[in-house]
Structures are given as structure tokens and as C-alpha cells.
Design a protein that fits this description.
327 residues, alpha/beta, Rossmann fold, seven-stranded mixed β-sheet, 20% strand
Length: 327
């Protein structure tokens, strides 16, 4: 076992997949000589050369388009989008090309691209360096969308994503890069796409979350445990396609559901999961389904008190569960 941070797990996954498969290459702004703005690709250009770890222009449309084109002729591209906030120039390439290529060709072509997207708030990044925008992609069948919350899942899911023949949006939360670490096996392992994971067992209510908010949910669960309320915390890990069976199984057991995510409430992942639970197992519910989410404002505030107010936190999650327990 090896003590590994979340970001080192990403680096290790990239290294292992590049060593295993010569068709895997990386491309992005500052990822080569500089090692990436967050140092996720540090040392990889020295090891694999400039033709496989490519410093790109500051152009997301070029990064996405070049990666998709290369994937159509047998390469496996892993482009880095330095901040999720700036993925919009690449949306046409991702949504109109990568997402649809397998469908429009009847399965004859596919685009095995893994878009590493650095995302998330609680880092003082302000309006243009704190977004996630995962709901844009969860509404795009044909893509796979994942967001790991632990070092183990970060490594295992990235390796699975690179090996997938589908285009994958791999969200990695900046707040977790060096704040989360754990002992990982030195032997190879994969985490399956589309499978949720119970990070904490419970019987009184279910919290469904992912990414950084998974850790906020676990803190809330620990607080509630001191009050005699045992909450189950389900980590989705994959947002598209999400693990519907795991969601239903957990909520059937606890009869209460709270969905926690960092991005805006309206039209978010939580709205979809809430509707799904209501459609399938309404009769099992003892209380309304609750969502604890980011506020419906244009962007994440820069001032620390305002950013704290915007983001879900353990206190807000605890209050939501307490209210459910009152029914």
C-alpha cells in the first residue's frame, strides 16, 4: 500500500495508462514543460516526450477538436481543460461531434476521448475559476460523466475512462487535489464506470452525493450520528449513466433522501435523481425528497464569506436531514 493524494492518483493513472498503451496521449495548456497548472502531469513529458504530452495553444476548441479527430483514427486522447469554466468554447466539438459520432455512424466509429476537467469551488477562485457545470453534460446521452471523490476512485475511474470507447467527461475537484489522501494498492486496479459506492452505512436517511460534496456529507453524517441519527452516504461516482439500482436500494432501506451537490439547484443532477426516486419508489418515502445545492446565482462569489454562503456545507446538510426526520 502507498499513501497517495488525490492528484498523485491522477498522475499515477496517466503514467500507467501511457506505459500500457502507446496510443494514449495527453494535450492541454501548460501540461508539458510546466507539468500543468496543478502539477497533475508533472514529469510525464520528460518520460514520454513532446509528441505524447503536448503543450497546446490557449484554445479549448483546438484541444477538444484535435483530441476528437485523433481518437477517430485510433488514438486515445486525454485532453486537459484547465478550468471547467472555460469549457464552453469546446462545447460544439464535444456535444455535436464526440457525443454523437457512434450514434450517427451506427457504431462504426467511436471517439475514445477522456476530457480531464478541473472544477469546483471553495478555493477562492471567484466567478470564472470555480464552476463545475456537470449538468450540461449529464443532459447529453452518448457521453459518460464521472466525478470521483477519493484518491482510490480518482485513479481507478481515470484508468477505466481511458480504456472506454465512449467519450468521457472526467471531473476532478480542485479542492480535493491535496486535501484528500489514502493508502492505495501498488498493484493495478480499476473502478467500474456506472457503479455507485456506499461510503457510510446507515438506516435513517440516505444522502446521495459526489465529488467534494461527498466529504461535506460525511461530516454531516458524523454530526447526526452523535444525535442518534444514522445516515447512509451514497457516492454516485458516475453521473451518466448513474447507478439507479444503488439509489433505489438505499432509499428503500432508509425511506428518506437528501441529494447534495455543489452546482446550481435548478436543473441540476439532484432534480433528475429526485424525479427518478419519486417515479419508482414513491410508496417507500416517509418524507419529501430534499436537495441541498449551490444557490441559483450567476456564479460562485469571490469573497470568502459569500463563497461559504453559496456552497452547501455540513450545517446545511444536517439541517436538511433533521427536517426530514421530523416527519
Amino acid at each position: 500500500m502507498k499513501q497517495t493524494t488525490y492528484i498523485q492518483a491522477i498522475t499515477d493513472a496517466l503514467d500507467e495508462e501511457m506505459a500500457r498503451d502507446e496510443s494514449v496521449f495527453l494535450i492541454g495548456q501548460d501540461i508539458g514543460l510546466y507539468g500543468g497548472v496543478f502539477k497533475a502531469t508533472k514529469g510525464l513529458q520528460d518520460k514520454y516526450g513532446k509528441m505524447r504530452v503536448i503543450d497546446s495553444p490557449i484554445s479549448e476548441v483546438y484541444i477538444a477538436g484535435g483530441s476528437i479527430g485523433a481518437s477517430l483514427v485510433g488514438m486515445r486522447a486525454v485532453p486537459e481543460i484547465q478550468f471547467a469554466d472555460f469549457i464552453t468554447p469546446a462545447m460544439d466539438q464535444i456535444i455535436q461531434q464526440a457525443q454523437k459520432v457512434r450514434y450517427r455512424t451506427g457504431g462504426e466509429w467511436w471517439a475514445p476521448v477522456t476530457f480531464r476537467v478541473c472544477c469546483g469551488g471553495d478555493v477562492g477562485g471567484g466567478i470564472y475559476h470555480s464552476q463545475i457545470n456537470e449538468a450540461w453534460f449529464v443532459n447529453s446521452p452518448g457521453l459518460v460523466v464521472v466525478m470521483p471523490s477519493t484518491a482510490y476512485d480518482a485513479k481507478g475511474l481515470l484508468k477505466s475512462a481511458i480504456r472506454s470507447n465512449d467519450p468521457v467527461i472526467y471531473f476532478e475537484h480542485k479542492r480535493l487535489y491535496r486535501s484528500v489522501k489514502e493508502e492505495l494498492p501498488e498493484e493495478e486496479f480499476l473502478v467500474p464506470i456506472g457503479k455507485a459506492d456506499i461510503k457510510r452505512e446507515g438506516k435513517d436517511a440516505t444522502i446521495i452525493s459526489y465529488g467534494y460534496m461527498l466529504h461535506q456529507s460525511l461530516k454531516a453524517a458524523n454530526t447526526l450520528s452523535e444525535e442518534g441519527v444514522e445516515v447512509e452516504v451514497l457516492d454516485l461516482r458516475t453521473l451518466l449513466p448513474y447507478d439507479k439500482e444503488a439509489v433505489l436500494e438505499s432509499v428503500k432501506k432508509t425511506s428518506r433522501a437528501v441529494i447534495v451537490h455543489e452546482s446550481n439547484k435548478t436543473g441540476g443532477v439532484g432534480a433528475e435523481i429526485s424525479a427518478f426516486i419519486s417515479e419508482k419508489i414513491f410508496e417507500y418515502l416517509d418524507a419529501p425528497i430534499t436537495r441541498v445545492c449551490g444557490l441559483d446565482v450567476p456564479g460562485v462569489p469571490f469573497a470568502p464569506p459569500m463563497e461559504h454562503y453559496y456552497l452547501p456545507n455540513p450545517d446545511r446538510i444536517v439541517d436538511a436531514v433533521r427536517e426530514l426526520m421530523s416527519y
